[in-house]
Write a structure and sequence with these properties.
There is one protein chain. The protein is an alpha/beta fold. Helix content is about 35%, strand content about 15%. It has one domain: Rossmann fold, CATH 3.40.50.1820. Strand 7, helix 7 and strand 8 form a beta-alpha-beta unit. The longest helix is centred in the N-terminal third of the chain and has 14 residues. The chain is globular.
Length: about 230
């Protein structure tokens, strides 16, 4: 039996992992699907000071308070930032990091800096125009469950300098069928290249778009099982 902690991406909640988590549990694994502060069923906790540090503490807290060891820590999309930060805090408790079409940050980077100058300028603009100065609403979605992200969650950087964390095995799952016109597609391609350049295990396939844990949960679980 393995211990999985599955972390959702921006604007989402733990619910996006529902089907994949069920498959992992059916196979006898221990699975946690926490929702980050201010998102999903925790939208009532949102405030301007919630940021990347908060999210890292959310996940580190699950691992510590549940007393988990040899964790396979999985991050989707934005939460490549989160799991990278958790690895810096708890490298001795992690067995494997899995980045599911996720951002791969270097030391001192934020989502804003990784996304490039155009998007970095757009984040505060969106917050000022439609988010009371601190909220960034999800774009072009019909899913009522998605919640605004804080501006701080996009501008706060992550520190990556722990020598033990650098030795944690890592897998990158690259989705090849993201829309070409989607602004985040080049960001994830860059992250996939960073993973390959660093010698990580790399899995690339057309898996049903960015939210592959919902569109192809069986395929995602098959890849995760190879990390045990």
């Amino acid at each position: 039996m393995a211990s999985f902690v599955l972390v959702h991406g921006a604007w989402d909640g733990g619910y996006v992992w529902k089907d994949a988590a069920a498959l992992l549990r059916d196979a006898g694994h221990e699975v946690y699907v926490p929702t980050l502060t201010g998102l999903g069923e925790r939208t009532h906790l949102a405030h301007p000071d919630v940021g990347l540090t908060t999210f890292i503490q959310n996940i580190a807290g699950v691992i510590q308070y549940e007393d988990l060891q040899d964790v396979i820590l999985v991050g989707h999309s934005y939460s490549g930032m989160v799991i990278s930060g958790v690895a810096e805090r708890l490298p001795d408790r992690l067995k494997h990091l899995v980045f599911v079409d996720a951002v791969v940050p270097y030391d001192g980077e934020s989502i804003a800096s990784i996304s490039g100058p155009h998007m970095a300028e757009q984040f505060p603009k969106d917050a000022q125009e439609t988010g009371d100065g601190w909220k960034i609403h999800p774009r072009a979605t019909s899913d009522w469950r998605k919640s605004p992200m804080t501006l701080l969650s996009f501008t706060e950087s992550v520190d990556i300098n722990h020598p033990e964390a650098a030795h944690i095995p890592r897998t990158y799952i690259e989705v090849l069928d993201n829309p070409e016109q989607w602004p985040m597609t080049p960001v994830f391609r860059k992250s996939a290249q960073r993973a390959k350049d660093s010698g990580w295990r790399h899995v690339a396939a057309e898996l049903g778009g960015h939210w592959i844990m919902q569109t192809q949960p069986q395929k995602v679980v098959h890849i995760l099982n190879d990390c045990i």
